[in-house]
Amino acid sequence: MTDSVKYLLPEEKMPKAWYNLAADLPEPPAPPLHPGTLKPASADDLAAIFPRAVIEQEMTTERWVDIPEPVREVYRLWRPAPLIRARRLEKALDTPARIYFKYEGVSPAGSHKPNSAVPQAFYNKQEGIKKLSTETGAGQWGCSLAFAGSLYGLEVEVYMVKISYNQKPYRRALMETYGARCIPSPSNLTAAGRAILEKTPDTNGSLGIAISEAVEVAASRPDTNYALGSVLNHVCLHQTVIGEESLLQMEMADDYPDVVIACTGGGSNFAGLAFPYVRENLKGGRQTRVVGVEPASCPTLTRGRYAYDFGDTGHLTPLMKMHTLGSTFMPPGSHAGGLRYHGMSAIVSQVKELGLMEARSYWQTECFAAAVQFARAEGIVPAPESSHAIRGAIDEALRCKAEGKAETILFNLSGHGHFDMQAYTDYFAGKLVDAPFEEAALKEALDALPQVG
User: Fold this and answer.
1) Domains of the chain
2) N or C terminus: fewer CB in 10 A for the chain?
3) Which Gene Ontology molecular-function terms are recorded (predicted)?
């Protein structure tokens, strides 16, 4: 093993193809269902809001999908992203474990999200689309699509979950800097938003509501498409550049992870890092534990039901078979806004059902404690979402210490927290509290799941 801290791939080693785990799963993914007929959705059904190239990637069973050279050219602005050995954190924890993290905060938008925003914008531009509508929770995806839209001359309209819109004004400012319009959701601009406001005018909003608004806008204009930042297969596909790079970088370190960890909200950054290692596990080589970490206030994988459900609150999207808390479930307000989604990616959910991954949940205060410990050791202030992965990695390192095992831990640091400092201010002031959801509300949402034969 080397003494290096950073493992930097040269640009020519950047992956030339995205990896599709669906090709290697022992069972094919369950198809999405049309929201009106509850029959498997066709490519034509999806064409109202997505470009053909994206639909093909959503449905493909091919193992590898070539990354277009113009997309790779943009990727070179920040990719390959560094793999970093967290030696100072290891010392602070006094653990025999070796801790590595893949750092995605080096992108222009500060997170992993441009890995999918850039190709989505590219494919839409190719098909003559003029405008993209989308939702965003904490703002990482909204910033990334705004960045990608600016590269390709696309108008971008972002519906940002209201509580995050108020908590994170600098994310809004970054979207506007890139030329996008950012709107608090729910809004009075859509029928879906007005219906929610009429029922609950003081709502904090949710990703499910914001998705409904963005989809409604895209479906109503022929020059406008919808872009999604997580959950769907094509987004998970685009993110696998993370894991494919890390495999090469772990070779450079002469090491291999015993445990791979990432936070889970919709599932994209988890899939990006973990799916290439799930592939290696399925091939029967050296086995790696794969762990997804989610907020205890929105515990989709650990408390959700595996069932068909709508991806949005307004029931405009196709139904997906996924771990879900119910499309009407309203998660409590938390600073990890990107993880406040009622459902989980269908393919990540399937991986969980097949026993190919583990899932655990943490409260936000214990995640912020881990984030502060990490920042004081490694110098990087993590996004609140990423702090969940750090909490998981620290707990694994402490387990190794207790058991006297020198295991290798790899986690995804999916973004920096430079625009999330109010959350840290609240944490240090003792204002950051753990807000549990009401069990009765969860039961009500699960009881309302659609009946699919």
Assistant:
1) 6-13+68-110+234-447 (3.40.50.1100)
2) C
3) L-serine hydro-lyase (adding indole, L-tryptophan-forming) activity; pyridoxal phosphate binding; tryptophan synthase activity
